[in-house]
Task: structure prediction
Amino acid sequence: MGGAVAPPMQRNMTDKSRRDFLQKSAQGMAVAATGGLIWSFLVRQEAKANPAAIRPPGALVEADFNATCIKCGQCVRACPYDTLDLATAGQDIPIGTPYFFPRDIPCYMCPDIPCKVACPTGALRADLSDIADSRMGLAVIDMENCLSWQGLRCEVCHRECPLRDKAIGIETHPRQISKHAMFVPIVHSDACTGCGICEKACPTEKAAIRVVPAELVQGKIGEHYRLGWKIDTPITQEFKPADDRPAAQDDAAPGEAPGLDYLNEGSF
Result:
């Protein structure tokens, strides 16, 4: 006698269960593969350090900042001017990290630095006590499109700079076609905070002064070059301009010329 045969309805239920199982398994594998691709993309985004991103005041160097920032958004919520934003997918900035575009909304340099206070991890340096010591970037002037450098009176960036005459100064240059002088802005890198207020205020269609990370535009002389006139030693004093030299001492012995030539002292 042959084996028992399942009723047709039971066979149909078994086939349906098998199809449902295979279909759900395929869907699960597709979801897993898609999730893996998304996660891989996010990891690549996390590892990407955008050299042109302008970070909040007190931010660590870019690689350390990306490793320390937990993307909590506390600094964004603490900013009273809505300057900061969080990077989203598709931007050339690690997702969830804070940044700002000075041309849209600059950093208005709050004295109490609320964004730094709100940061829970130290990605924004806790030891930054004076906003003037922050270095978010460096303002760079496009002389070919700057109104002042083209001979027009503007100086808006200089007037709006919160560290006027320290971060941005004005120099007078002779004008070749008339006797009137040109008043041109000059950025001093040792004082510029990179707040971007100058970029926001620039009246040209595209800002002729822009804030960029300092390392993108600043060079480095190197330790093998010595600028002797900047070193305070008895030898280098002779090479400084008269206005920069220390006042002459009047305590020389009678009949002895002050400032005896060191080469004649017999020390060699």
Remarks:
- The CA atoms of residues 5 and 11 lie 9 Å apart.
